[in-house]
Specification:
The chain is mainly beta. The protein has 1 helix and 8 strands, in the order H-E-E-E-E-E-E-E-E. It has an 8-stranded antiparallel beta barrel.
Length: 127
Amino acid sequence: MKNIIAAALVILPLAAQAGDVTGLWQTAPNEEGKYLQVQIAACADNSAQICGVITAGFGGASQDNNGKPIIWGMQRKSEDFWNRGNVWAPDSDKTYRANLTLEGDQLVVQGCVAGIFCRSSVWTRAQ
């Protein structure tokens, strides 16, 4: 019985995190090794949507983008998938329609133009 209770105490927190995209994320480094940290949480103006704000730049990334929104208006479609939002690409200063797919401690961020031309980036949950 003690083993069952101990196992439940370990498994329950993991189950609660399934599908939880909120928290601090690290973007994939660009060709120059620059990357950002992004805080993802419910949007201030609509708690049913997910938004992300740049909190820091590393590897020589400019700190000028700190505090700027990078993801907004993401709507949960399923446990591990959000869509119908936008992502801002600081490297090109362009905004794209976006999808987010949570895969464990990785977040696949896909931005598309006209739903045809897409690029993806894999972000890692910051520890």
